[in-house]
Specification:
- InterPro entries: Calcineurin-like_PHP, Metallo-depent_PP-like, PP1_catalytic_subunit, Ser/Thr-sp_prot-phosphatase, STPPase_N.
- By secondary structure, the chain is of the alpha/beta class.
- It has one domain (23-254): Purple Acid Phosphatase, chain A, domain 2 (4-Layer Sandwich), CATH 3.60.21.10.
- The protein has ten helices and 13 strands.
- The chain has helices at 16-32, 53-63, 84-97, 112-115, 120-127, 130-140, 167-171, 184-190, 219-229, 247-250, and strands spanning 36-39, 43-46, 71-73, 102-104, 146-149, 153-156, 192-193, 200-202, 215-217, 233-236, 252-254, 268-271, 278-281.
- Strands 1-5-6-10-11 form a five-stranded mixed sheet.
- Strand 2 (43-46), helix 2 (53-63) and strand 3 form a beta-alpha-beta unit.
- Helix 1 (16-32) crosses helix 3 (84-97) and helix 1 runs parallel beside helix 6 (130-140).
Amino acid sequence: MAVRGCRPGTTVQMTEAEIQGLCLEARDIFLSQPILLELEAPLIICGDIHGQYTDLLRLFEIGGFPRKANYIFLGNYVDHGKQSLETICLLLAYKIKYPKNFFLLRGNHECASMNRIHGFYDECKRRYNIKIWKMFTDCFNCLPVAAIVDEKIFCCHGGLSPDLQSMEQIRRIMRPIEVPDTGLLCDLLWSNPDKDVQGWGENTSIEDGDESVSFTFGPDVVTKFLNRHDLDLICRSHQIWKPSERNAEDETTTLKPCEKKVVGEMSSLKLSEKKTGGEGSP
C-alpha cells in the first residue's frame, strides 16, 4: 500500500524474508480451505490483473478496500505487467489478513511453465533471485481452482472440461499440484467458450504463440452443464473481453483482463445480496 498516491510504476521493495513469510502463510491458508470454494454474496468478482498494480489499487478505491468489501479474483495475477511482485504480494497479504472474505483462484499463469517465459520469472530474478520465484511457485500450486457463489454462479479462470461430470471431481484434486498438460485441472484454467462451436472444439486462441491447449466449448455444452448442476451462470476471465459479445447464449460471462493489450481496463462483477441480484461494474 506504500504507493497509494504515488506516481504509477513506483516500486515497493520488500525484504526476501517478508516475501517468504507471505508465501508460506498464504500457502497454509489455501490448503486449509477447499479447492472448490462455496461462497455467498455480497461479493465482487474480478478478472485478470497481470501485474498492473496501479490498476489493482484503483479497483480497490472503486469497489472498496478489503474488509469493507468481499472479493474473489479469477487468476492471472502475474506476467505481462511491470509490477507482478507488488500485485501478488498485496493480494497474498490481503488473503492472510482477511482469509474468510478475500479469495484468489488459480489462473493459467500461476504455473511455472507459463510465468517462466512471460515475465514473472525475469522480474523475480532481476529484483531478487530465483529462490523467490520458486517460493511463489510452491504457493501457486496450492491455490483453489474454482468457486460456486450463492449455489448459482460457477467461477473459474478458464472454463469447462469434457472430463467434468461431478463437482466432486474438483474437490478430489489433491494439492500442491502442478498444472498438467491435459485433463480436468488444465481445462479449468485454459478452456474457452466459443459461440460458433457445437460440443467441444480445438482451442486455437492461445496467446503469444503457445501451442494449442485444452478445448473450446459451445453454447450446448454450457446449457447442459448449468442444467445438470442447477446453476445460472459461468463467470470466467482468461480472454480479452469483447463488449459486443456475451458468450454462449448469455450463460457465460467473460470479465475484462487488466493487461497491456487493454491498459487501464479491468472488469468486476458486483453481486449484491440474493434478493437484489447482480450488478455489473466496469
